[in-house]
Automatic annotation (TrEMBL):
Keywords of the record: FAD, Flavoprotein, Oxidoreductase
Sequence ranges assigned to domain Reductase C-terminal in this UniProt record: 338-410
InterPro entries in UniProt: FAD-oxidoreductase/Apoptosis, FAD/NAD-bd_sf, FAD/NAD-binding_dom, FAD/NAD-linked_Rdtase_dimer_sf, Reductase_C
Provenance organism: Streptomyces rimosus subsp. rimosus
UniProt-listed Enzyme Commission number(s): 1.18.1.-
Main enzyme class: oxidoreductase
Cofactors: FAD
Name recorded for this polypeptide: Rhodocoxin reductase
Length: 458
């Protein structure tokens, strides 16, 4: 890039929440150069959380989910254009149509896509859907509005649970099939998975845990009619929603030399991408769901997140660092926060619940379905999850940030006493045994686990 960091050419790959907020921040920081934003979808950036909530309930139109633009970013928006490769030596983004787009600095914000059903011929049945994009949500909303007899949801994570909740709110029969011991167990551990299971069943969900779907069935016209389960049972349904988690959009970086793999693109705390050999770049940055970054509160392990708030915060840090000299750059060290509303309750989390060995219900109770659960690892607080007690999240975030002892001491910020329960194992399962993936994943220390070290000479 030219000597003036606020001039030159910046390309953002990903017309996403992270891409938009980065573009806005670049202009706020005084960047006056050329700004291009690529997006594979034809739509301007839109908000994804409403897709599995208001859109499926019919209370919001898919086109109403567009994100507000906080300022004119004066960008060349290239929508409906897919990045097909990266030439880091020539500093060019290679487009699917053969065009090469030059850059001085690049931001990768390509996010994730829905993990597909592994059998393409079954996935092609009419009525088998996933929900990740605006078009996906519109398609499923139309199916639900038509009043199917039953919906089968494969995967008991947050997305699957929100879809099941929308079905029940529309008085549609729904079956949830989860390979693991309970819904949300991959994100919250065993204690709260029991609460989630009870909540779903109380709202009429046919919840099947500890089973896998072995085959999707269709009629002679190619319409989905049901599924076979590993326990020998069969589910008859008109619609099947695949909610098996997310896949990072990194395939276009396969020949780039960057540390890009199934967990995302590795970067440092300043959002600068690593090469496969752990060398930090100075002209390629990463933000949002596709990123994988180290965090000092969690043993400097690389962290992969699928969070709205993280996408915004990381995009702003990345944009600032793209146009700032080294001494003025800042780290992205935000504590992960996420939330979900389904079956009439609000679940909010701070920290990394899966980075734990014990959990204690510090306030409320599982029976009341109103509580604050605090997670600990090797004697310090690492996470907290609240159920309809969101006002306490800020208090527990301070405990995490200060590496407070676990279990937490009695007495909280406003003098409300904490109940004295004994900690129990947090019962975090191996993700390989689940249908759904965690929204926060600790992925080890290496920039790229595919690394092979070759020594030259004798």
């Amino acid at each position: 890039m030219p000597g003036d960091l606020r001039d030159g050419r910046i390309v953002i790959v990903g017309a996403s929440l992270a891409g938009l907020r980065a573009a806005e921040t670049l202009r706020d920081e005084g960047f006056t150069g050329s700004l291009t934003v690529l997006g594979e979808e034809p739509w301007p950036p839109y908000d994804r959380p409403p897709l599995t909530k208001q859109v499926l309930l019919g209370t919001a139109a898919p086109e109403s989910t567009g994100l507000p633009m906080r300022r004119d970013v004066d960008a060349d928006w290239r929508l409906g254009v897919r990045a097909d490769g990266l030439d880091p030596i020539g500093k060019r983004v290679l487009l699917a149509g053969g065009e090469a787009l030059p850059y001085d600095r690049l931001l990768i914000a390509t996010g994730t896509r829905a993990r597909p059903w592994p059998h393409p011929e079954q996935a092609a049945l009419d009525g088998v859907l996933a929900v990740r994009t605006r078009d996906d949500a519109a398609h499923l909303a139309d199916r639900l509005a038509a009043g199917p007899r039953r919906v089968l949801v494969i995967g008991g994570g947050f997305t699957g649970s929100e879809i099941a909740s929308a079905c029940r709110e529309r008085d549609i029969e729904v079956t949830v099939a989860e390979r693991g011991p309970g819904p949300l167990v991959g994100a919250l551990g065993g204690t709260l998975a029991k609460l989630a299971a009870g909540l779903q069943r109380a709202h009429g969900v046919d919840l099947r845990c500890g089973v896998t779907v072995t085959a999707l069935r269709g009629d002679d016209k190619g319409r989905f009619t049901g599924a076979d389960l590993s326990d020998g049972s069969r589910i008859d349904a008109d619609v099947c929603v695949i909610a098996l988690g997310a896949v990072r959009n990194v395939e276009w970086l396969a020949d780039s030399g960057l540390a890009a793999g199934p967990h995302g693109v590795a970067c440092d705390a300043g959002c600068r991408a690593f090469t496969r050999y752990g060398i930090v770049t100075d002209d390629v940055f990463v933000a949002g769901d596709v990123s994988r970054f180290p965090h000092p509160l969690f043993d400097y392990q690389m962290l992969s997140l699928e969070h709205w708030g993280n996408a915004v915060a990381q995009a702003e840090v990345a944009a600032h660092n793209m146009v700032s000299p080294g001494p003025l750059r800042r780290p992205h060290l935000g504590v992960p926060v996420f939330w979900s509303n389904h079956f009439g309750i609000s679940i909010k989390s701070v920290g990394v619940p899966t980075f734990s060995d014990q959990v204690v219900v510090a306030q409320g109770s599982v029976a009341e379905r109103r509580l604050a659960a605090v997670y600990g690892y090797q004697g310090r607080v690492t996470a907290a999850v609240t159920v309809d007690m969101g006002k306490w999240l800020e208090h527990y975030q301070r405990l995490i940030e200060t590496a407070a002892p676990f279990p937490p001491a009695p007495g909280a910020a406003d003098g409300h006493p904490l109940i004295s329960e004994l900690p129990v194992p947090s019962d975090v399962p191996d993700p390989a045994g689940l249908s759904h993936g965690p929204t926060v994943a600790l992925t080890g220390h290496l920039p790229d686990r595919r690394l092979t070290v070759r020594h030259s000479g004798t």
